[in-house]
Amino acid sequence: MTEVQRGTGAIVVGVAATLAFVVLRAVVALGGHEPLAIDVWWHDLMVALTSDIWVVVAWVPAVVGGTIGMIVVGALLIAALIWRGRRWDAATLAIAMVAVVGIGATMAAVIGRTRPADSLAESVATSFPSGHTAVATTVVVLLALVLRRRWVWVVGIVWVLLMMWSRTYLHAHWLSDVVAGMLEGVAVATFVWACMEAIRARRLASATPTPDISEEPIESTVNP
After folding, report:
1. DSSP string, 146-197
2. What tens digit of pLDDT does each residue of 127-146 get?
């Protein structure tokens, strides 16, 4: 697959994720921001399966994916990319993380969806979309795109699913919140990556000297 095809594919995925997010947002808004039927079903299932051991397990991704946790993890990942000489990729990851937090936090504050009443974590009415899930998805998709390793995709998908489960198991979000967070993360990561790759390609193209054909010797066509 060429770089142009990868960039086009990323944009297509980003557009699809954005459209899906808009549809989900509309459905939630039409319902008065109340939990959807599937939200209630999933929430009741998580409540029925609640146990002290699994609550502790659920807090692990919640803490790692929290504000302080992601600052530390993000800084380590960016430092690792810089150490390996991948400064452009490090900048791409940093921009994507800042963008997803800025976009998600703003939407959550404006939408103001109420969290489940029995939340074991946050209680502020900023439930939609899930910031933990959005940031986790952004980091995973970005790393998978820049590292181009299948195992990164596999481990990353498992991590995102674990984060989505964690946030709903702790009753901090409705199921539709974490799905929205995942869609937001996919959209931000793919758009930022595609834009940064396009800029990098233009910079490389402008920095590559073009041969001056006027200085090439003209072969004589006259026989001696």
Report:
1. HH--HHHHHHHHHHHHHHHHHHHHTTSS-HHHHHHHHHHHHHHHHHHHHHHH
2. 999 999 999 999 999 999 99
Quickly count: other Cβ atoms within 10 Å of residue 210's Cβ: 6
Residue 216: count other Cβ atoms within 10 Å of its Cβ. Answer: 8
Distance CA 44, CA 55 (A): 15
- H or E, element range at 28: helix 3-30
CB 100 within 8 A of CB 142: no
Structure tokens at 89: 């990729």
Of residues 130, 203, 138, the one with CA closest to residue 173: 130
- The residues, any chain, with a CB within 8 Å of residue 94's CB and separated by 6 or more, are 74, 78
Residue 161, amino acid: L
Is 6 buried (19+), middle (13-18) or exposed (0-12) by CB count in 10 A?
Answer: middle
- Residue 22 burial by CB count (10 A; 0-12/13-18/19+): exposed, middle or buried? exposed
Q: Confirm if 169 and 50 have CB atoms less than 8 A apart.
A: yes
* 3 Cβ contact partners less than 8 Å away, ≥ 6 residues apart: 197, 201
DSSP letters for 54-73: HHHHHHHHHHHTSHHHHHHH
pLDDT tens per residue across span 41-83:
999 999 999 999 999 999 999 999 998 999 999 999 999 999 9
